[in-house]
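Hello,

I think I submitted the ribulose-5-phosphate job twice by accident. Can you confirm which output corresponds to this input? Input:
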Amino acid sequence: MSQARLKIEVARAALRHVESGMLLGVGTGSTVNAFIDELAASGLRLEGAVSSSEATTSRLKEIGVKVMELNHCGDLELYIDGADEVDAHRRLIKGGGGALTREKIIAGASRKFVCIVDESKCRPILGEFPLPVEVIPMARAFVSRKLTGMGGRPQLREDFVTDNGNLILDVRNLDLINPVQVERDINQIPGVVTCGLFALRGADQVLVASESGIETR
Ligand code: 5RP
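Support: Only one job matched these inputs. Its output is below.
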């Protein structure tokens, strides 16, 4: 089965967690795009959605979902999003699409976070995928030096500005044996908005699509 097909299968499985009338948090990326397509086909009618990116907002509006400001909602019942890497403890690397900060805010504001991935995203230890770090533009060089001091090899994501007007440093070579501590350490560097480690608040459930079906972790 192709990776695109696995994304559709896991997107369809995620629909089982969604009920009409819900206020839903929606992530960003190609797996989430498949989920939005499945949502459109399902006939489910949401009260509305809180979106993690301008790209997702456009797609939700195209299918007639009301997109709401998080500031106008209480906590959300459910957040559905993909990931770049997932470990056995449901800790994640996210931000390949550059939406990590809004994704982390919505994950934090949601009672349940269901992460949807195909099996290629599963890792024994996080860190093969370069860790995205969103940075205030004036702090780019300073934060890069700090990340290098932690053993990382940061690289500026070329020609990319986040929806929040910031930059992304993609960091290779970090030791992520203790992702909770690394998440804390990076997030404390002045000028860092957030890093793409979702270890302090990981997913509550991970749905993994493979040739043999959908596994729930
Ligand atoms: C965007 C993300 C995405 O969830 C992550 O990049 C996975 O994307 P895809 O579903 O396209 O593989 O964190 O910031």
